[in-house]
Amino acid sequence: MKFLTNEEVKQAKKNIDVVKPYKTTKEIIFSNVFTFFNGMILVLAFFVATTLRFENLLFVLVIVINTVIGIYQEVKSKNALEKLSLISRAKYKVNRDNKVQEIDIYEIVLGEYLNLNLGDQIPCDGVLIAGEIEVDESLLTGESDNIYKKVNDKLLSGSNIVSGSGLMKVTAVGEDSYINKLAQDSKKFKKYPSKLRDYLNTILKYISFLLVPVAIILYLRGKFIGLDYVDIVLNSAGALVGMIPEGLVLLVSVSLAVSAYKLTKKKVLVQELYCTETLARVDVLCFDKTGTITTGNMNVVAIDELAKEKLSSYLAYFDDENATSRALKKYLRLEKKWHVIKKGAFSSRDKFSYIQVKDEGTYFFGAFEFLNIKEKLASNFEEYKNNGYRILTLAFSKDFIDKPKDTELIGNVVLSDEIKENTKQTFDYFNSQGVDIKIISGDNHKAVLGVAKKAGFNKNALAVDMTKVSDEDFESVVLNNQIFGRVSPNQKEKMVEILQKNGKTVAMSGDGVNDVLALKKADISFGMKEATSAVKSVANIVLLTDDFGVFYNILMEGRRVINNIQKVAALFLTKTFFSISFAILSVIFAMKFPFIPIQFTVISALTIGIPSFFLTFEENKQIVKNNFMKEVLTNASLAGSILVGAVLLVNIFQINSSIAFILALLNGLLMVYRVSLPLNSHKKLLLYLLILGGVLGVCANIFILEKSFVSLTLKDIILLLITFIFVVTLHLLTLKKQVKYDIKK
541 and 275 in contact (C-beta within 8 Å)? Predict the structure, then answer.
C-alpha cells in the first residue's frame, strides 16, 4: 500500500476550487450597488442637486437604506449557507503517514493516494493504481453509459463511482482538474430557471426602454412651454423617480436570501436561491424510497444458515459502504477463507455482485429475480416482501461466469428499513394540496409498496414492476401509477422527462448514484442527509436532517416568497404605471406633472416601501396560482388608472395642488389594504400606522413644502369629496369582483 508523508502533504498543491458556489461579499456589494436603476437614480440626483432644492434628494437616502439592508441580508444569508455547506461536504479517505485518514475535499493534494468507493464523486483527476470500478461520466460528457475502469486507466474529476472500489493517485487538482476547466469555460454562476425572475425581467425591460425617451420628451416639453431650469428638473425628476420600481428587484433578492437563511435553521442547505420558488410551483413529488421515506439504515431480520456461513466469507472481499453492506457486516463475523479468482461489485444496473472462487465456481449475491435461479422464491419470503422487507439472495453456479445462468439457490437474507418520522403527516398534507406523490425505487416493487404503506402512504396505491413495462406502455404507466419498483437509473430520468412533457413541475429526491440522472433532469432536486457526494453535487437543495417533515417547511417558504412578492409587486408598479401614463399625457396635453421628487418619496415610503417590507416577510401558505403577471399588472394598472383619472380632474379644474397629494396617498393606502387581505391584528396595526403617517405627510406638505396652509374653496372641497368617493368606490367594486373570481377559481 502506498502512503504520503506529512512533509509531502505540506509541500503539495491543494485542491482549491476556483469556482465558488456562492457570490463573495464583494460580489454581493457590487451587484446591489451597481445596478441600472441605481445609476439612473444617481443621474437624477445630480440634476436635482444643481437646483439647490436639497430637500428633494430624500429619494436618494431611501435607495441607500434599501441597498444597505439588501447587502446586509444577502451577506448574512451567504455566511449561514457557507457554514451549513461545510457540514454537508463529502469526506474522502486518503493514505497518509502509514494510515487511512478522512479529509475534506479541499484538503486533497497533488500526488494523493485516494480511496474510491461506491457513491463517491471523483474530486480530482487521477490514475487508478489498484482495484476495478465502474464510473458514470454523464455529468462531464452527457453520455449515460457507464464505463469500466481498470488499473492504469485515467479518471476524471466529476465522474461518479457506480460500482466497485479502488485506489487512485491524484494527478491534477484545483484549476488544473478537468471539471474546473469545464466550469471556467462556462458562466461562473448559472442562472436557475425561475418564472418569478423572468416576470420581473420582462417588466423591468419595458420600463428601462421607456426611461430615456420619456426623460428627453419631458425636458423638451418644459423648454417649449417656457419653464425655468428648476421647474423642468424637479417636474421631470418627479416623473422619472416614479417610473423606477427601485426597490422591487432588491426586495425579491432579499426575500429569497432570507428564505434560504430561514431554511438553514431547519438544517436545509439551499444551493440555488430560486429553488424555494420552484418548489412552491411543484405538482409532482418523486421520492426515492431509500434515504427519503426511510432513514437509509437497515437491520437483518432473518437469514438462512447456509447463506450466513457463505456470506461471512463473501462480504469480506468487498469494501462497499452502502446500507445493506453495513447491516450485514455488523451482523456477520467476516473472514476471508476463499481463493478468489475474480470479483464484480454490485451495480445498480445488474442488481447483483459476484465472486469466482478457485475449485468451486461463482457465487452471486443480489435481487432474487435477477439471479436466474431455477426454483421459485419460497412463499414465506414472498410474504416478507409484501410487508415491506427487503430480500437478498445468495446463489451459486459451478461455472466461472460473470452473468448468472441456471444458478442454484443457497439462501436468503431478510432486511428491514427504518421509517422516518412525520412521513404520514407529510404525505397527507401534500395530497390535500393537490401535489401528486410518486415513490420510485430500484428495489422490488412489492417491497416498496410494503414500506410505503408502513410509512402511511395511500393504502389503495398499486405497485408496478418497471422491468415488465414495455416502451409503448411506459408513459401511461408513469402517469397513472404512484409506486414503482425495479426502476433503472435511465428509467428514473425518463419518468421525470415524461411528467415534465405532460406539463408537470417535478421535484425529485434521492441519495444514491442511481438517482443522479433523474435529479439533474428534475425541475428541483433534493439530496438527502446521507446522500453520496455525487448526489450532493447536483442537488439544488441538500437536507442535513432526517426529519421528513422538512419538505413541508421548504414548500411553505416557497409559497411565502411567491405569494407575497406577487402582492407587493402591484404596489411598486402602481407608481410606475401612473408615472409613465401621466408623463405621456402631460406631454400631449401640456399638463403639469403634479408631484415634485420629495412628494413622491413620501408617497412611495408610506404606500410602497414600508408596507412591502412587512408584507413580504409575513407567513403565506396559500397555493400558488399561475397568474402572476395578470394579477400584478391588473392591480397596478387599476390603481394607476384611478390615480391618473383623479389627478386629471385636479388639472382640468385647476384646483389646490394639495388635493393631488392627498388623492395619491389615499389611492396608495387603499392598494395596501387590497394586498393585505385577509387582515390580521398585525396588518391592521400596520394600516393604522400608515394612515397616521399619511396625515403627518399631508401636514408636512402643507406647512413645510408649501410654507403655509392654503384654505380650500368650496369647489376644492366638492371636487375632493367627489374624487374621494370615486376612488373608494372603484377599489371596492373591483375588489368584490376579484374575490368572486378567486372563489370561482
Answer: yes
Other C-beta atoms within 10 Å of 634: how many? 14
- Report how far apart, in Å, the C-alpha atoms of 337 and of each of 315, 319, 329, 412, 420 are: 11, 16, 16, 21, 38
Strands of 420-481, DSSP E: 436-440, 463-465
Return contacts of 623-628, CB within 8 angstroms, 24+ apart.
623/433, 623/434, 623/559, 624/280, 624/281, 624/558, 624/559, 624/562, 624/563, 625/745, 626/281, 628/195, 628/196, 628/199, 628/562, 628/566
3-state per-residue secondary structure call for 257-318: HHHHHHHHCCCEEECCCCHHHHHHCCCEEEEEHHHHHEEEEEEEEEECHHHHHHHHHHHHHC
The amino acid at 336: K
In angstroms, the CA 41 to CA 743 distance is 42
Residue 202's φ and ψ, nearest 5 degrees, are -65, -45
- Measured distance CA(419)–CA(453) in Å, rounded: 11
Q: pTM of the entire structure?
A: 0.66
Q: Judging by beta carbons within 10 Å of its beta carbon (0-12, 13-18, 19+), is residue 293 exposed, middle or buried?
A: buried
- Alpha helices by DSSP H, listed for 104-228, are 138-141, 178-185, 195-224
Quick one: which of 430, 492, 485 has its CA closest to 456? Answer: 430
Instruction: Assign 596 to helix, strand or coil.
Output: coil
Q: How many CB atoms lie within 10 A of CB 380?
A: 10
User: What's 134's DSSP letter?
Assistant: E
For residues 273 and 260, is the Cβ–Cβ distance under 8 A?
Answer: yes
The residues assigned a catalytic role are 288
How many CB atoms are closer than 10 A to CB 232? Answer: 20
Q: Phi and psi at residue 549, in whole multiples of 5°?
A: -65, -10
**pLDDT averaged per 10 residues, the chain (length 745):** 84 73 75 78 86 79 73 73 63 89 88 87 90 75 67 87 86 82 47 69 80 81 81 79 73 77 83 74 83 78 92 87 81 91 80 91 92 87 82 94 92 87 84 88 83 84 90 93 88 93 90 78 84 74 81 84 84 82 76 71 83 82 78 83 77 70 85 86 91 87 62 73 81 64 44
Cis peptide, bond prior to residue 213, ω within 30 of zero: no
Question: Do residues 587 and 221 lie in contact, with contact meaning Cβ atoms separated by under 8 Å?
Answer: yes
| 664 touches 598 (CB < 8 A) | no
Cα 49 to chain centroid distance, Å, stands at 43
